[in-house]
Design a protein that fits this description.
This protein has about 150 residues and is of the alpha/beta class. The chain has a single domain (about 1-145), classed as Ribose 5-phosphate Isomerase B, Chain: A, CATH 3.40.1400. The protein has 6 helices and 5 strands. The chain has helices at about 10-25, 40-55, 70-75, 90-100, 115-125, 130-145, and strands at about 1-5, 30, 60-65, 85, 105. Helix 4 packs parallel to helix 5 (about 115-125). The structure holds D-ribose.
Length: about 150
């Protein structure tokens, strides 16, 4: 199950991505927002999606706002979340292979729809490499998180 959330600035991309994923056979849980006109606060949606991923209710998450930056800042406050803000396919692949990122953040105001869907596809189909050095680095991050 893929969790998805957006604010008013990215409602169009959310609809596009959900249709794309459902066509490909993914199950998607839509956390809103459900209205492009009503201005909302992106952290509300970031925390819903991040909690669904951190609790393993959903396997991965996708968050979109105007730039994707606010969503990524908020999602990364949730313990266990590794949210990667991506604007290119190289980063989408690398963040899965090296960082085992579990949420993808993107901006509707900064990307075209074709590139955004390519980024989504690569993010969802690329496996974590599991290399010792990457596991060690991620362990340092979760150890730091546990100390707080
Ligand atoms: C909303 O205007 C905008 O600030 C938001 O979508 C996002 O870009 C924040 O990072």
């Amino acid at each position: 199950m893929i969790a998805i959330g957006c604010d008013h600035a990215a409602y169009g991309f959310k609809t596009l991505i959900i249709d794309h994923l459902r066509e490909k056979g993914y199950e998607v849980k839509d956390f809103g927002t459900f209205d492009a006109e009503k201005k909302v606060d992106y952290p509300d949606f970031a925390f819903e999606v991040a909690n669904a991923v951190a609790s393993h209710e959903c396997e991965k998450g996708i968050l979109i706002c105007g730039t994707g930056i606010g969503m990524s800042i908020a999602a990364n406050k949730v313990k266990g979340i590794r949210c990667a803000h991506c604007s290119d396919t190289f980063s989408a692949r690398a963040t899965r292979q090296h960082n085992d990122a579990n949420i993808l953040a993107m901006g509707e105001r900064t990307l075209g729809p074709g590139l955004a869907l390519d980024i989504v596809d690569i993010f969802l189909t690329t496996e974590f490499s599991g290399d010792e050095r990457h596991v060690r680095r991620l362990q340092k991050i979760s150890d730091y998180e546990d100390k707080k």
